Amino acid sequence: xxxxxxxxxxxxxxxxxxxxxxxxxxxxxxxxxxxxxxxxxxxxxxxxxxxxxxxxxxxxxxxxxxxxxxxxxxxxxxxxxxxxxxxxxxxxxxxxxxxxxxxxxxxxxxxxxxxxxxxxxxxxxxxxxxxxxx
Length: 134
What we know:
This is NADAR domain-containing protein. There is one protein chain. The chain is α+β, with helices and mostly antiparallel strands. It has two domains: 48 residues, no CATH class; 74 residues, no CATH class. It has six helices and five strands; from the N terminus they run ββββαααααβα. A three-stranded mixed sheet has the order 1-2-5.
């Protein structure tokens, strides 16, 4: 699915998306390859990189064998991560996941480029930021 476009009070064009059916979601089913490994979503790739960074190779291999992004996320949920991961490794891993997703899938790349200058917003994360109390 394509984003839902709205105009913010500031006049900025927003592209809103939520759920795995939207092509911008990290949980969206899309195949790509990195280092000879097949991945089925950018979320699966990110969680794989997280497990590798934590030196949890058994979990990393479980993630590779699964096509499920939610399962991959659940396998790494309680991992203790290094300062390096927290301060930049996780951002680098996600940026690489997104790059691989769009660079290896021309249809998705075209759809992304067609969003133009819209500010893309994952509504799920926005909802959590606005409504979840600490």
